Automatic annotation (TrEMBL):
GO cellular component: microtubule; nucleus
Name of protein: Kinesin-like protein
Coiled-coil ranges per UniProt: 427-457
Positions of ATP binding: 100-107
Region (Disordered): 363-397
Primary localization class, coarse: cytoplasm
Similarity remark: Belongs to the TRAFAC class myosin-kinesin ATPase superfamily. Kinesin family.
One Pfam assignment: Kinesin
Compositional bias segments (type: Basic and acidic residues): 374-387
Keyword terms, alphabetized: ATP-binding, Coiled coil, Cytoplasm, Cytoskeleton, DNA-binding, Microtubule, Motor protein, Nucleotide-binding, Nucleus, Ubl conjugation
Amino acid sequence: MAQRVAVSDGANKKVSRVRVVVRLRPYMGTHDEKDEGSCVRGLDSKNLEIINMRNATETVKYSFDVFHGEQTTQQEVFLSVKPILPHILTGQNASVFAYGPTGAGKTHTMMGSSNQPGVIPRAVREVFKMVNAKNEVEGWDYSISMSYLEIYNEKVLDLLSPGSQDLQIREDKDKNILIPGLTHTTITSFSDFDKLFVPASLNRTTASTKINQRSSRSHAVLLLKVVRTQHASPHRQQTGKLYLIDLAGSEDNRRTGNQGIRLKESGAINLSLFTLSKVVDSLNSSTAVRVPYRDSKLTRLLQDSLGGSAHSVMITNIAPEYKFYFDTFGALNFASKSKLIVNKPFICETVAVPALPVKRARDGQEAGRFGTEPQKKRQRDEKKTEQDGSLISAHLHSPSEPSVIDRLLALEKLVMNCGDKDKPGMLRDTDDSLKEIQELKEKQRELESKAMLYNRVLGERPGVKQESAFKNSLAPLQRKESTASKGIKLQAVVLPLQVTQLQPLQKLAVVKKQSVCAKKKEKKLFDQVEPPEGKENCIEKGWESQLDTSLLDISKHKILQILNSGSLKELKGLQLIGDKKAKLILGWREIHGQFKKLDDLIKVEGMTGKRYPSFMKANILSVMGNSF
Ligand SMILES: Nc1ncnc2c1ncn2[C@@H]1O[C@H](COP(=O)(O)OP(=O)(O)OP(=O)(O)O)[C@@H](O)[C@H]1O
């Protein structure tokens, strides 16, 4: 029976950190309608920097095991993967997976093309090369087999047997992940592999989206299994597995233009990548009681590659164009977290009973392992090896390492909630409002000191450094002026906390000061429409009807104009829009484009439906007041 033998290094058990490689795709003009240039660039073979949207004069720097710039060849990328391959010849597992936004170059990296083969064909060729070299000198027989599957809409489909049904993912009592019924074909040369791989890749589900003409709609997994058997007694047998995975890209469907089936596919892709992110968070968290591997087929399959038994390399593919800024930023943060995962590799070894003939790896044996295990036993094993009984928070990031954006937005929400709770009659009376503003400022100060602490902690995180953009010898990375949006002043976008640190507190006032004259007029209008205590909701509907409809329309149009093309300062000129919210609006605009109607504002983080009526009332009255 196969058993786990710990990989030892003298007295110490060996652990293996996930190696993180980042590859930047060459700049493509077709993805840069505004001709803004690149938002990210390499500094050296390990470091890169991305522009800081909060402050365009700064960049955020990241450090990884390897950084591959735009000119990197396929062979150079392969060389950063090659060191983990020898492990599979000694009964250990290894995995390489390409992660990143749609269109960033994952398939190019993993599959490549006939004249620029990617990591998968190069790795398989290398494995054959190593096996052939070893066959001649060592007393072991080697056998290599391959399987190829895709996870499409949370279904596991056999690419070597198209038309097959959704396959189940199982775990044996040694925590090996198995897929009963999956085709395992013995291959004896690279050309055997090539003959199967190329047509099977065409079985993979791809489709054209706005971002990528040939976008992978599934996660593709090539599994190469190397079984080696000792000639002499005790006829040890070791099985090493190599997973080569081309993940589907994370997608923002407002940009991909996905609808119908594409949207459904995208939902499944994003969900599994979200689960992958949760798994990484749990592995990094000292407090998580359960690693949610079972929440998606992808993570279930990767269970013995992530935080498990494998030597892993994660290739994070990123794109340089501003259009991908938030995807790139997210991918880099994910890559940074993944760097901290430690795997515990072991050797999967069987010792044959001496009286029996030497067991040779063959297809039949695979079938025994993957296809004929009695179901009851399998269920028992599953139950026994179930590691994750309890629920864990569905947060994307662990308490010990939440993402910058999440932390900032959570704090932003906190500010909003304080606001909602503490100032029900904010517009009722100027004195009351001032008092409430004062209270809010106090709260803001408190939050800012917490934020400062957060940012200090962030500064200390390995791999993520924030420094001035000008500390390197390269010319500063700066955004080119957009040729498409000349009318719109370019603003550094969002991530409110850090910005509030830099801004004087006065600028964060929730209610913007107005001219005395305008304020008087507004107060007059408020006096007419203000509801009695506790009846705000019913009056919120009625107050508009008391105003001239054409004036009302003009005011709404003006507000919409400000939302769509206003600078940070102009946005902050709106009622109930402080510095943070103005930046959130700019950020939303950056990602989603124009607000089609005022109601869209509810979609902006922190602008809840509950606050929206107050915002509308205050601004319409203010705009009207200003135009009197
Ligand atoms: N390093 C590179 N050099 C040249 N072209 C590249 C490179 N990386 C990607 N490309 C090109 O960019 C386009 C998108 O790449 P690719 O299909 O590999 O992206 P992807 O990340 O796999 O996208 P998806 O997640 O949508 O499948 C392709 O036309 C590809 O040939």
